[in-house]
Amino acid sequence: MKILFYFLFFLFFIQVGGAQIIVVELEDSITPASDDIIEAALRRAEIESAEALIITLNTPGGGFDETKKIIEHIEASPVPVVGYVYPKAATAWSAGTLILLATDIAAMAPNTIIGSAQPAGMSSEGMQPIEDKKIINAVVALAEERARQHGRNVTVAREFITKNLNLNAEQAKDANIIEIISPDIEDLLFQVDGIETKGRVLNTSGASATYYTPSPRLILLNIFSNPILASLLLLVGIYALVFGLTSPGFGAEIFGVISISLGLIGLGFSINIAALFLIGLGVALVLFELYTPTFGIIGIAGIACIVLGSIFLLPMGYPRLYSPEFQKTMIISLFAPAIVCGAFFAFAIYKIMKIRNKKPEIGEIIGDMAESVDPITPDTTGYIRYQGEYWSAKSQEQIESNTKVVITGKEGRVLIVKSSK
Q1: What is the per-residue pLDDT for 275?
Q2: Is 208 part of the annotated catalytic residue set?
Q3: pTM for this model (two decimals)
Q4: H/E element holding 257?
Q5: 16-215 architecture in CATH?
Q6: Are 210 and 22 in contact (CB under 8 A)?
Q7: Could you say which of 2.40.50.140, 3.40.50.620, 3.20.170.30, 3.40.50.150 is the CATH number of the domain covering 362-419?
Q8: Average of pLDDT values for 118-123?
């Protein structure tokens, strides 16, 4: 009898203690990193024979391609997936709503909101709702089929896109868009217990919930995939590269290349060749202005090319599923740095032209000491540092960098120097 008791107790312990739930958080924008994180979490849930995977949603939306891939991962996985708009007051707008519709069980915490799923695209006028019937119909069909597949309200699913409909938790349940309203994960596990989905009956009451932690690579990719941060890195990198190429040293160039690389990795979309051409042309024109006197006209044209190229480098017409509020924030965050950086370079060129147009008395500088920044030979000019300013200089002798020199004359804007030794 005692042996039978221990045996039954052991079986009970295995049944209750063995149930495991994996929880993965989907916050902020839906990016390529989000797709990788969901795929990795589903793989872990399958390997560990988890009872279910809970995806907590609190997002303004994101890219359509990434959203579609996440939906494909959810449907391909044998693990039941519970979509849960959480915590209280969270939102799962746009792309988040489509993901919720695709989950096997849809739940929302009180005071949460879903909806506003009309695609938007970046244009020369900023983030604009997409009216193209081809794109709208594709997104509508995706939402309707996911709703139909899980026995949810197809009409409301369509209106999330065509009318930018928004629903709170109670409205969503009354409209048969979600199955459960739950204040926390513990209560959610209690409510989904016994529900049959994907060929199994869930045994989640009292199960242990383990939060999935992405790998360091995915964490970094998620950070840099934020569309605002990625675009800022790209813009800052471009201007750092220009600054580095026009001043001594290599720090700014290295920082610029790294920033541009991280920005392109984070953006995760095809680069607009025309935009890159504009940026490259702008950099070349600014460099030409700094080394050749053209009264600032070419420099201003270069700045205009860089600013326009930076703006056009954004994904034009690319369907993004972001909430209207996030779209406004994104526009300000992307355009403001381009304008500020352009103003900075305009001011820098103005100051350079002002220095160039100064007409110092030649007698005042002859005999003064300066320091070479670059090597100077009879055949090549180089920069010297004189009273904190950089001047182009030439010499009839070989002068190494970081050498004290004496100014002996001036030809146009080029100083004539010799070694002080």
Answers
A1: 65
A2: no
A3: 0.62
A4: helix 251-267
A5: Alpha-Beta Complex (3.90)
A6: yes
A7: 2.40.50.140
A8: 75
Active-site annotation holder among 2, 133, 134, 358? 134
> Looking at 94, 231, 310, 372, which residue is catalytic?
94
Is 404 a residue of the active site? no
What's the one-letter identity of residue 381? T
With a cut of 80, say whether residue 419 has pLDDT above it: yes
- What are 295-343's pLDDT values in tens digits? 566 777 777 777 766 665 655 444 455 555 555 555 565 566 666 666 7
Q: One-letter amino acid identity for 363?
A: G
Residues in the chain: 421
Single out the residue of 179, 198, 203 nearest to residue 42, CA to CA: 198
Q: Three-state DSSP class for 345?
A: helix
How far is the C-alpha of 65 from the C-alpha of 368, rounded, in Å?
A: 64
- Rounded Cα gap, residues 121 and 366, in angstroms: 61
Is pLDDT above 80 for 122? no
Question: What are the tens digits of pLDDT across the range 26-55?
Answer: 998 898 889 989 999 999 999 999 999 999
Could you report how far apart the first and last alpha carbons of the chain are, in Å?
A: 106
Please say whether the beta carbons of 118 and 162 come within 8 A.
yes
